[in-house]
Amino acid sequence: RSVYDGEEHGRFMEKLEARIRNHDREIEKMCNFHYQGFVDSITELLKVRGEAQKLKNQVTDTNRKLQNEGKELIIAMEELKQCRLQQRNISATVDKLTLCLPVLEMYSKLREQMKSKRHYPALKTLEHLEHTYLPQVSHYRFCKIMVDNIPKLREEIKEVSMSDLKDFLESIRKHSDKIGETAMKQAQQQRNLDNIVSQHPRISGGKKSKKEVCASSDLEVKNTSPMSEQDSGILDVEDEDEDEEVPGAQDLVDFSPVYRCLHIYSVLGARETFENYYRKQRRKQARLVLQPPSNMHETLDGYRKYFNQIVGFFVVEDHILHTTQGLVNRAYIDELWEMALSKTIAALRTHSSYCSDPSLVLDLKNLIVLFADTLQGYGFPVNQLFDMLLEIQDQYSETLLKKWSGVFRNILDSDNYSPIPVANEEVYKKIVGQFPFQDAELEKQPFPKKFPFSEFVPKVYNQIKEFIYACLKFSEDLHLSSTEVDDMIRKSTNLLLTRTLSNCLQNVIKRKNVGLTELVQIIINTTHLEKSCKFLEEFITNITNVLPETVHTTKLYGTTTFKDARHAAEEEIYTNLNQKIDQFLQLADYDWMAMEPGSKASDYLVDLIGFLRSTFAVFTHLPGDVDVHSTMSGKVAQTACMSACKHLSTSLMQLLLEAEVRQLTLGALQQFNLDVEECER
């Protein structure tokens, strides 16, 4: 810097040149000192070059030989390298295939299961495929296709299982009556068993109750596993003979479609949808089942089919309730049963009201009891059905009264109104066996002899007993107390006596052309029937085991009925006599202007007195118990005689006082006096 600043370039260069020269001299001096060593070194180096050339030639030669020898090795090594690469690729491929093959096998298995309609196992396979196998090989294109197909397969499984369920629902709708028929047969067998057990308590050990039988059959239902592959529907069952054991109602049905579908929808997270669909469809079916056919009341089979369908419906629902968790619940079943009960009772009230045949009403009652017992065995409350049966009982009584009205009419119309002749002891005992009659005087008389009453007495008495039996039949299995049964029978019997029999007797008494002999016989007959009322009381007491002294026991009104009939018959006798007297008086032909009286009483009056004499002979010659009938007929005869005399005297007085008779002669009055004296005589 100081050289440039002081502009001393020239001087500096000179100094620098001098310096260089000094160094050169020192270098030369040093080289001269070491020159020999340098020459020796060069000589040595030249020797080394020669050796090195030899060495190079040897190395080159060796290298050439090595290259020639190594060519085959290199080729072998290349082949080895290629082989190793292939081996590694094969190993990698095997590993990848090991991962892919299970996926493909599972997918193939899935398609096979779908094809053979094994939908629940297919769904399980789909789950494994989706969550276990596919994630390991998700980068392959075929796996992506599978992943895309999985939702479609799920939907397909869902649709097919729903289709199976629809087939099942349709099938059980069609076969409800068969299921119900079987359940009611079981209930009937159980009831028969219970009756046998109650009669023979010693053999009751080991017998199951109906509920236990049903519960055990629930546990034994086949093909209810969700893995079951059977088609939906009803299993074929041949009609069994009465003696053979009836299969359990649940054994007739393959419930596997319901279980499969429920499991499938549960796995797919759509259980609530399935439950709602199932309940909705079964509600619709319930409404169809509860709709009675319009002609149901015509035959018992119509009612039986209706009941079978209802029982079949609820047997299926009860089984579903106990074998699935929550598909249906108790509240849902109770709601359905309430609806069924109200509709069934309404239908029965309507249709039973059309029924006029008491035997059909009785069969219907037995069918309703069996229907109620069957459903009660499955835990359904049936008290309302028994309450309704009490309503049908009133209707049954009415149909019985109509039927017995015809029976009584036929008996009364076909009767000859003559005392029953008895030719021998056998006939006598037969009649006494039919009607409670005891008469020491009659027993002492030799054969042939006659009972005081006509044939309608034992016939009517037996028909009253038949009516009581018919009433008793209806009260069986209604779970009524003895007092209630007794009360029911007595009330119905009272209606039979006071309304039906009473009307029939009145009609016979009031009909045209009834003879005095018939009326007298009716009086005698009703007297005997009146006495038999105490035996009817005893008869009812014997079959109901309720003593007549029991509080609130209804008394029979038979006595009143027969007294009223007897009084009506007596009145009819008096009326008939008076009408006959009027007919004779119409023949009276007095000549009020006659100058001389006749020598004897008028012809019409002689005929009239002859008629009255023969009429009263009927009363005095009545057969039977002298004490009873002579007293009774004598009383009727006395009253009839008084009535006839009073009517005749009044009528004769009217003849004199008629407006047409304007004047009388003494001769006419004397003739009239002759007639009155004839009457007095």
Automatic annotation (TrEMBL):
Keywords: Coiled coil, Exocytosis, Transport. Gene3D superfamilies: Dsl1p vesicle tethering complex, Tip20p subunit, domain D (1.20.58.670), Exocyst complex subunit Sec15 C-terminal domain, N-terminal subdomain (1.10.357.30). Residues 15-184 form the Exocyst complex component EXOC6/Sec15 N-terminal domain. The keyword Transport applies. It comes from the Eukaryota. Residues 13-83 form a coiled coil. The keyword Secreted does not apply. One of its GO terms (cellular component) is plasma membrane. Residues 384-680 form the Exocyst complex subunit EXOC6/Sec15 C-terminal domain. InterPro entries: EXOC6/Sec15 (IPR007225), EXOC6/Sec15_C (IPR046361), EXOC6/Sec15_C_dom1 (IPR042045), EXOC6_Sec15_N (IPR048359), EXOC6PINT-1/Sec15/Tip20_C_dom2 (IPR042044). It holds the Pfam family EXOC6_Sec15_N. One of its GO terms (biological process) is intracellular protein transport. Signal peptide: none annotated. Belongs to the SEC15 family. This is EXC6B protein. It comes from Stercorarius parasiticus. The lineage of its organism: Eukaryota, Metazoa, Chordata, Craniata, Vertebrata. The gene is Exoc6b.
